[in-house]
Design brief:
This protein has 51 residues and is mostly helical. The relative contact order is 0.07.
Amino acid sequence: MYKLSTIPNTLVSHLLKAHKLNFVRLSTRTLRLKKSVDKSAWQLRSTRGHN
């Protein structure tokens, strides 16, 4: 394990920024996926109710 002082702050901030962006992108994708799944489930339920 090495000290944080040996790593340039710019590199650390860049890595943190990249990680944050990836996390946001992943979370939005997951939300979109969940929304589509909910939508399909609702459509299935509604069609089943009509039949």
